[in-house]
Structure prediction request, 72 residues.
Amino acid sequence: PLKWGLVLLSENRVGLIGELQNDSYINPNELFFIGGSGLGFSEPLRGYDDGRAGPRGGGKSMVRFTTELRIP
Prediction:
């Protein structure tokens, strides 16, 4: 904790999907979707609707950095 009970939170998430063979099939349900509350299959990200912060069909990689200052 910082002064006056403040808490600084930093979170980093990184993901990468790659094929083991050139002709491998990746199910679209396994791709990354970012945005929204995170209650569905998407990675949560405030300020965006579910799955709307990246490509419409999902992506094979994602990086998310979050920093919060929590005030009691």
The beta strands are 7-16, 61-70.
